[in-house]
Design goal:
2 domains; Rossmann fold; 5-stranded mixed beta sheet; BirA Bifunctional Protein, domain 2; alpha+beta; 8-stranded mixed beta sheet; about 30% helix
């Protein structure tokens, strides 16, 4: 998805001198949420954001209007010094892994590029089977930087993005960041709580603070606009919401374990391994424990494994496998090649319902 959107994957250091965060404005706004420490009489901080690092890459050489947009993405971890009472499982953590991205562009490119990002975000949620989404357009707050005319132009561009996509949204008056308007996509969990995931934030502030420029068609220096972008947002939070959304029963394509094979006895272990070897496109495990077959099946059900295969003497002789799914359906004597085709198809289609035994 990142490559289709024109983002180049990069890596930035986890530790910068505090002067970096002073320059970017994060030190003043977020110091109490940052991990700050001293080394040899110099102060450092672990990164709470990726944007300054990406901006330094942008600034590493002269840029022309012909180069824009320039976009960097980073599946990186940032660190927030959350208070212990604020932590909540995977939903609120101190080490946050993000599908972070930053795009540097001219004001006239905002609408086209923001449309691509929004479309990719909505398509991604659709793939995961997420339908309860709330979209907000947050506008200029009272304390904001940048010219009002540029704010108005950028806000109207984001409105056109939402309206041209046919997306229902609400206006959040004055709730934009101090550096620019933004589009946020919130997901609703099984408890009705809403969590921000995708975001498209326009920023006029950081390019100014970090001295970012490009040479325009008039051969004069201009400031780029910066888009802060995430699609899934915090991967930890997204996984937590998915687990609640599916009540732990992840679709086969999302399940870390897609099929668990249970040999009836040790003498059928070799055949179980043979079957597993044939299911090359499926994540397969074999339960080699000494527990009873019924207990192994129950544990697989408790673990919410989509499919459980049992192999014994009859299956070994016929070259088949008996399979049951976590909904309780069962089918005996399935040809292993046929099972491979059905499971591979279900995984490839990213089906949200179990269907290999239908």
């Amino acid at each position: 998805m990142n490559s289709k959107l024109g983002f180049e994957e990069v890596w930035t250091p986890h530790v910068f001198r505090s002067q970096t965060w002073v320059q970017s404005g994060h030190y003043e706004a977020f110091k109490d949420r940052m991990y700050v420490f001293e080394v040899d009489d110099d102060e450092y901080a672990i990164k709470p954001m990726n944007c300054p690092g990406h901006s330094f890459i942008y600034k590493s050489r002269p840029r022309s209007y012909k180069d824009l947009p320039i976009a960097y993405s980073e599946f990186g971890t940032v660190y927030r010094n959350e208070q212990s009472g604020e932590l909540s499982g995977l939903l609120r953590v101190r080490a946050v892994t993000m599908d972070d991205g930053h795009m540097y562009l001219m004001p006239g490119q905002i609408e086209e590029e923001a449309s691509k990002i929004l479309r990719a975000s909505l398509e991604t949620f659709s793939v995961f089977g997420i339908e309860k989404l709330d979209v907000k357009l947050s506008t200029r707050p009272e304390k904001a930087i940048g010219e009002k005319e540029l704010w108005a132009e950028a806000t109207e561009a984001l409105k056109r993005v939402l309206e041209s996509s046919g997306t229902e949204y609400e206006i959040a008056e004055g709730e934009g960041a101090f550096y620019g308007p933004k589009i946020d996509v919130d997901m609703e969990d099984s408890l009705g709580r809403k969590w921000q995931c995708a975001t498209i934030q326009l920023d006029f502030f950081m390019p100014e603070r970090l001295g970012l420029e490009y040479t325009g068609e008039d051969d004069k220096p201009h400031r780029p606009v910066l888009i802060h972008r995430a699609i899934l947002g915090s991967l930890e939070r997204f996984i937590a919401i998915l687990l609640e959304h599916y009540q732990g029963k992840l679709p086969t394509w999302l399940s870390p374990e897609q099929l668990r094979i249970i040999p009836v006895s040790d003498k059928h272990l070799g055949y179980a391994k043979q079957v597993a070897g044939k299911l090359s496109d499926v994540r397969v495990t074999i339960d080699e424990s000494s527990k009873t077959v019924s207990k192994k099946i129950r544990e697989a059900w408790m673990d919410k494994v989509p499919y459980v295969g049992v192999v014994g003497g009859e299956e070994s002789k016929r070259g088949t496998i008996s399979v049951r799914d976590r909904s309780g359906r069962r089918k005996d004597g399935i040809d292993t090649q046929r099972l491979q085709v059905r499971l591979a198809s279900e995984i490839e289609r990213r089906a949200t319902e179990l269907g290999a035994l239908s």
